[in-house]
Amino acid sequence: xxxxxxxxxxxxxxxxxxxxxxxREVRLIDETGKQLGIYPTREALRMAEERSLDLVEVAPAxxxxxxxxxxxxxxxxxxARRERDARKAQKQTEVKEIRLKPKIAEHDxxxxxxxxxxxxxxxxxxxxxxxFRGREITHQEIARELLDxxxxxxxxxxxxxxxxxxxxxxxxxxxxxxxxxxxxxxxAEVESAxx
Length: 195
What we know:
- By secondary structure, the protein is α/β, with parallel strands linked by helices.
- It folds into two domains: 2-72, Translation initiation factor 3 (IF-3), N-terminal domain (Ubiquitin-like (UB roll)), CATH 3.10.20.80; 95-177, Translation initiation factor 3 (IF-3), C-terminal domain (Translation Initiation Factor IF3).
- The chain has six helices and eight strands.
- A hairpin with a 5-residue loop joins strand 1 and strand 2.
- The relative contact order is 0.09.
């Protein structure tokens, strides 16, 4: 039974290490990142044992394969930490929905505009949904005018991602936040940074 668990762990691993490396010679990189050159695999394994490290095949497609001397468990931990930090750094854009009716008071429109501005400022997309009830659906132009009025009020922070379109008894429109331009350093800033 224990041999099956070992086989599963070996097959799930993305890198071959130590005795799993079955080539004659490897290009060796030490723990500091310095290239040591091409060594026979047995010699590289001996060096890894002397330093109490693992011989890890990092580029099996290269000729000869590239191997590094490192502590494999520490390597996996740091790799997982980098991936976790990268996921935290990414902001997941959400689509927030604002529901409207074709016959809506002007003050209520202003409240919905403020709500949309808040969502867009946070980096989220906004879906405006105008729901028709009963005979209201015969006057779709009222909903289009309403959506156009809202768009005019938030063009400074949003762009129209999808134009108003009917979907059943509702009219939908999606707004996306305008990407903030990255600051381009002036020539004076570049010169001061170089000095």
